[in-house]
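Supplementary Methods S3. Input chains for the assembly prediction are listed below.
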Amino acid sequence: MNTSPCHSPSHLTRRSLLRGTGAAGISWLTPLADLLAVEAESAPIGKPARSVILLWLGGAASQLDTFDPHPETTIGGGVKTIPTAIKGVNFAAGLEQTASVMQDVSLIRSMVSKEGDHERAFYNIKTGYRPDPTLIHPSIGAIVCHELPEAKIEIPTHVSILPNQWPARGGFFGAQYDAFQMYDPKSPVPDVKARVDDKRLDRRMEGLAVVEQAFARGREPDMDQNKTLHQISMQRARNMMSSDQLKAFNVTDAPAKELNAYGDTPFGRGCFAAVRLIQAGVRCVEVTLNGWDTHANNFEGQATQVKILDAAYASLIRDLKKLNLLESTIVVCGGEFGRTPKINNVGGRDHWPHAFSMLVSGGGFAGGRVIGSTDPQGEKQEPEKPVLVEDLHATVQNLLGIDYSREVMTPVGRPMALSKGEPVKELQAHA
Amino acid sequence: MKVCIDLMVAKIVRKPNLHSRVTDRLQAQHPVMNSAPPSSNWLLWLRNTAILGALAVGAFLGVAELLTPPVAELGSAPGLPKAQLEDIQRTAQAVNADFEKAWAQQQILPTAKTDDLTLVRRLSLALTGSIPSLQEIRMLESLKSADVPQWWLSHLLSDRRTSDYLAERLARVYVGIENGPFLMYRRRRLVDWLSDSIQQNRPYDQVARALIDSNGVWTTNPEVNFVTVTNQMNKKGPDEVKLAAKVSRAFLGVRIDCVQCHDGKLGSTWKQTDFHQLAAFFGQADFSLNGLRDDPKQNYKVRYLGKMEDEKVPAKVPWKPELLPSSGTPREKLATWVTAKENKAFARAMVNRMWALLFNRPLVAPVDEIPLEGPFPAGMELLADDFISHGYDMQRLIRVIVGTQAFQMSSQSSDPDHPVTVAAENAWAAFPVTRLRPEQMAGSVIQAASLSTIDAETHVLFRLKRDIDVTNFVKRYGDSGEDTFDDGGGTIPQRLLLMNGNMISNNTGNNPLINASTRIGMLSPDNATAVEAAYLSIFTRRPTPAEQSHFTGLLATSKSRSSRSIAMSDLYWTLMNATEFSWNH
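Predicted structure tokens for the full assembly:
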């Protein structure tokens, strides 16, 4: 079935082309995904991005053992380097696949955070704000869903795959903007299948209407809408249960070759599912790869995680590009902070928010650029051309066509800008 | 006091006991057991039958005893002497007067007092993390006591479920929910110690002191886990910064950690030095072979914003320095200062938290940010003064709050033309409707699915299963982590879990041995009684006429035992998926 309102020949051409190239997952495209893919394909240059994928390296990846190596220095830790698709830019060995897609990716080597504690730093990197005792800021995914509502989609538009203790939250926009959490995509999405047949479900819902009426008596008429969101979320849950779009969560029917390219790991499958979800119309997907907090045995620990990251990240970028989704999808990859140049006495690196690396790609980000640099001797704390966490947020929102400086009224009565940063023009393809 | 389970379902027609009923059914299903042996080697057949039969009966009796204790016994609640109760009531009335003044100023009309069963439900949820069982409701309704909620409160305060639940809630405040460094931290021991302290009604200042200044090994001195949880793998000794933040938030209701990196902004007068000087009280805390102790050779250093080098930080308190004693270890001095009677922030912090535990919403939000110099909302100062003057008696504090009009009023307006407003809820002129915490939801699902009370007397295997079920449910529902009291609405994953999740399905499906839904359907003499029993089990109230009529009608169409079981299962599912079940009211 094709519910696309438009039947122009160009769409047929595109479909034929995609079939011809054997693009990943096309066979399961839902009508909505079809429509969105068509829109993406026909997007003019400079058109705002539509969706975001965030790949969190939880625990904080070491910039020195990944994207900002300083070989043959005391802080380098004996790192071996490899060239990348960007001339003169080297990565740590182990990131060969990622190195090969860098023409579509830009690298920030001068990210600066002011938070050195995991929880606070995650809050900071996900929201663009530092923790504030009086309110909870929305994560970037919640902002995207709030600012760019998507009525056509029946599955959650904000998804967190393999969440750690601090999954993306709706903050002052409300719990309805919290990310929908799911774990290794090789298992089915839990709890989306009704336990009874339609007849019994209808009978249950009829009873529920009677019970809700009794509870509503003498209470605020809009309590469900303004406070509990109980019946609203139940209706949305029912829509989701019967939606064809649920297929996007399922990676088990994917051709083994395509899936294996991401690596046979939960994170790899998470990245694969992220592409499918974006294809289905989801606004924001975050996938977390924990295990980077290497206070001891840093080099072994980082190398293990690098191997998982490399296959998954490079495959994700390649597939988005192959599916013509990279132009409309922003991909951000990095940790909550970096790790110390100094190697401690148990061979570890500790927390270092002063200068760390982040990969940005797609959705209007330029490819093949490098911003900032760090001191090869590790003595100077501040990097060249620092990019603040809030500036990265402002850039992402700007590329999505969101007025990042717009102030929204928070529940505590304090106006708050969506981002207090400024876009980094150097990172944008069309500044 | 003894209550028969079968009678709970409605003093129904006495039926044969469960054991004989099920045995009868088993025999009916396996008539061969009573027939003649089919072959000549009947001795062998008889032996096998006897062994299998013995195993089956043994297993059944075990299950029956495990899951369906036929008789429950509730001791009488240890009430307080009349004079003490009157004294508590006087304080509650003073608090009421404080609120009435505020309502008059805002021209808000408070709602009427709610009914006893609603109060019983609120108390059970707040103190045990679960709704009352049908067994408990029947028992309470048979009481001769004039004041059922008061009796129930006294009972709960002596019930181990209360101390265990409150201990877990407080532990979340003190040490969070993570397991921490295994070699130096035992969360379970700390929770048990807190539970014992609450059960014994140990004065709260003594509890706080012990947490801050105790020494020793974390396994034998459980209170030191408050400090040892902050130990970091690559850092020598506990983390002074985390401890300063915990002490200020948990015990003083002040978020001084906001100035960890810079001086206060947005009107805050705190300086970066205030925070680090507080942290310096933990600068000598260190680990030795004898566990946690203070080492005078150690000190706390920090590099302040804009400075090039670390500097040694003196231990100083951020207010009322005159209350700091001159002798003792730094942690002993800090503990004395925190718990000094003149340091009223300590009492206010506990009043605010206890209020939040009872209402699911704090008097001052956020729960750990109370202005030092005010202004304070109605009730706060009176409650804090009473708490201090009665030796930080936590049970008394609970009794006083429960005795207030604010706690006892309805969450619904009796006048449909003038429903409860947000302003009325915010002014405590109506009991606030708040979302239940995940563990309260899980505990309530499990309790509602059982006719008898699940408590310390319940068989250990059943309690173990309950704990596993709760953990799994909370993980999926979304653990709210540390003890926060946010008012967020329901989410899609939560609804999916309640609609289609294992816990609801398992607890409301057809299971005549365990599930209340099936058992009520089997034992009730008529449909109206079955609907009423389900409502009492799940909502702690009776159905309205419209509800009674709707569900009785549905049950009436179910003629066979299996279709009746399905109809009861649907009724249970419906009630557990209602707003009323997920929201405290």
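The longest strand of chain A covers residues 105-112. The radius of gyration of chain A is 22 Å.
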